[in-house]
Amino acid sequence: MNTDCYKFCLNAYKTEYDRSVRQLKKEHEGKKVSETMLDDFDREAQKSAIRISITKALRQFPDEPVAELWNAIYRAHLFRKSGISDLETINKVISADQSWKKSSGHAFEEMVKELASLALHGTGIEVVLQRDLNTLIKADELANEPRDISWLREQISANIFDLYCILNIDNKKYCFGCVQAKTSIRDRVTRDREPSIHAMQSFFWSVIFVLDGDFLRLPKFVSMVNGGSEEFHENGWHGMYVFSAKEQKDRIYPLTMDFDLFKSHALQAAEQWQKRRQWFDFMWKAE
Question: Given this model, what pLDDT does residue 283 score?
């Protein structure tokens, strides 16, 4: 890896982690802070550090392989979690690896939400986390038909999708899209594909964001997305947006930090869902 790139990632991670911890402690200044709360601070700070540092790295080094940037931040995370070299180091590294897997996934989801929200500002469309959709449903603030509500509750209960697309019409909120956000899906693409197909069969827009699309070099994975093969006859998503992709391959789209392409597709999908939902099946494709 480029030394300057690696140092940049290390510094960005540490700076944001330290800043986040300071802010969390300041917000609880004068209050009794338990060990459990300190653990919560740590988890929130490391999620923020991962999200901010990968965002900065992608902007600073647009030509650097995404996998290398992600690996540099992973190493920064391990270094902070493992501490000095002593008899406990191995256990600390294992713990760090486990916390990385959990925190990095959530951080990527939140990064997608933030960048998508910036791009969609003023359009009447927003992207929300699963917990936000759950809150809307519990508060009876989602205007979808009961059949939709029931189906969405099932997805939330099974923790199927990471984010959802919300359309605001006349001060009413409607969920029209289901979103998956994965740092890489090489090892779980089949499991992710199946619920996406179910979403499209229920006439929802179904898309996925992927940070590292290195696996798409293999024809099998391309077919899982686009269909057209003997094993995978139909497409698995309406679209896959990949940070590391350079060229479009049918329904596989390269994604830049401005999210302009996703914005265009979201507007088209929202119109299709609103006006022609009976034809919003797996075959629909954004122009």
Answer: 95
